[in-house]
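Here is one chain, start to finish.
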Amino acid sequence: MSFDFQQAMHFQPAYPMRMSFTIDFTKKESQKSKMEKEDGLNKLIALEQRMRAFEGIRLYDSIKAAEMCLGPNMVIPKKFRVLEFVKHTGTQCSITHLKAYCNKMAEVVDDEKLPIHFFEDNLSDVALTWYMQLDNTKVKKWKDLVNAFMRQYKFNIDVGPDRLSLQAMEKDNKESIREYARRWSEVAAQVNPPMLEKEMISLFSNTFKAPYFEYLVRSSAQHFTDLIVIAERIEQAIGLGKITDPTKKNGFTEKGKDIEGGC
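Its structure:
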């Protein structure tokens, strides 16, 4: 047989060497994927066994599932869009949270089952656990759920911020006037009954020390925002050295004494 040199030059091996690396890599990936699937399946089986032991072997029956729901036989309107809620964790003011939730659900307020059904979407942590443990035989109407919620978290109202706690607040040294005013006003918004703006101005001014206090109590601010602007001007004047801050002056004096003592 004759040997064709030109044919030999164009000859390409059927199995390039680089294919062996690709095959090994795919094999490793498939093994890893298989292990992950098996691990996930084992976890799912374990979870299902726990749920069955907790609720009984008929947990996943359709009849049993219907009995567990709050507001069964509910029909969600096609045009209804799922809303995003601020989550109640069990520590916030329950009245404020209920008002915010009702405002969000205003378009479906006529259907009592929808607010009951979606109420879990605005809960988290221990509050969500409480909701899941409710007896559906005792929650037939929206009013039933509201009453249960208020009974559960009435403590948050009883121990909520009051005027004395507002007056006891102080501005942190690393906090700007605007940051402190925002923090203070967030707490003030939780005070019940709500405060008039004139009372807010007086209480906020009394939380400051010298030199802020002397200027703020003498100001003629009619609105809370005006008082914040005045306080910010004092802050700027202190930074420029136009107003002396006794706390900073004392710190400088003590530092000077230390230096003199060292010499």
